[in-house]
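Anyone able to model this chain together with shikimate-3-phosphate?
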Amino acid sequence: MTVNPTHTALWPAPHASGAVAATVHVPGSKSVTNRALVLAALAHEPGWLRRPLRSRDTLLMAAALRAMGVGIEETVSSSSAAGQDGSGEAWRVIPSGLRGPATVDVGNAGTVMRFLPPVAALADGPIRFDGDPRSYERPLHGVIDALRALGARIDDSSLGSPGALPLTVHGGGALEGGRVEIDASSSSQFVSALLLSGPRFNQGVEVRHVGSALPSMPHIRMTVAMLRAVGAQVDTPEAGGEPNVWRVTPGALLGRDLTVEPDLSNAQPFLAAALITGGRVTVPDWPARTTQPGDALRRIFTEMGGSCELTEQGLTFTGSGSVHGIDVDLSEVGELTPGIAAVAALADSPSTLRGVAHLRLHETDRLAALTKEINELGGDVTETADGLHIRPRPLHGGVFHTYDDHRMATAGAIIGLAVPGVQIENVETTAKTLPDFPELWAGMLGN
Ligand SMILES: O=C(O)C1=C[C@@H](OP(=O)(O)O)[C@@H](O)[C@H](O)C1
Ligand SMILES: C=C(OP(=O)(O)O)C(=O)O
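re: yes, here you go
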């Protein structure tokens, strides 16, 4: 958890003078966009991706696939889905024989660093993976060890530790696949990564998770649902299978026409704004059914004070004027933790956030970063073995450091709405998944 020395500009977080009342169009889901890109690249026919998220993580994914030979064309849709905000724009994905040599910049994108080594194992030629310094520290061994067990040749001897970036996958044009055991307790993305490419392995794949509890189960369900939507056969624990075992049958994937849902986790700061100002925010196109973990915000923020209604206009969240603390297990929805911690710091009673020890290995050590930054504004947060205790205190202004973590920046903005004088260091880091965050935030406030 180091302060980024290259970003010293401070963004004065806007303070809300009253209840917010706004409709906020939230861009597409990172998790859906990057899965859809991988599946479309592995398909046997072209496909469409409408309203894809265009952010650092998804542009890195698209660039990496292009480097391996996949065609990804920008198009402007003529369909009625095309909105004035450009939301109808689409990517047409044209699969082709995957090939190296190629270099993949993973940035600090968990989805890119974990989903693409299995794709690279299917390519013909060497694919070199590198990324931001933090990417060297984030767990990857589950994917790398599994790929080796399934027949891949990977050279991780250059710089870093075994099973970590930077490394080279020497793709052989095909991968045998089969049965593999992994410990995915540090990231659900290990499971998702192997399942996404599984239909293209000669024997498909059977993934057995053998460690302690798996985090982020909705994200694994998202992977399974998206695989099935492109024609893959997947057996899951939920469907009466063995616990912690997923099986993907080998087979061709269809090219589909998919419209990406808004990113419900990125809707969080806007809903939080309604909650803490006693206002009202509507997010259009909120899906009635979804595998996105952000859908849990309806329940969590309602428990923290407020109410929500899903109508044809979207999801409207209305604050009650009070914000309550919460005792909650966030293991399924870890990426919501920074925003919930920010709201909890402004509540009328203490909170306990549990089940998120693995956040220490996210974009930054999120538990340490939230504790330090909220406490430096006068808060009283302590780390537990698997989460945070947050006792609300009157907060004051100051600099909120973000450690290159988009969700730290949006957490700081939430606090800034209620606390005058908060300045966010490197708000540009929101570009990882929400490049327009400062503009959307200002627009919500009517600025
Ligand atoms: O598969 C995905 O799209 C994600 C899975 C989760 O990762 P972890 O299981 O590593 O927490 C989540 O936190 C991340 O933001 C996105
Ligand atoms: C953990 C996150 O991202 P990543 O996909 O890089 O793991 C996140 O977006 O909160």
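The pocket of phosphoenolpyruvate (ligand 2) is lined by residues 109-111, 335, 362-363, 407, 433 (CB under 6 Å).
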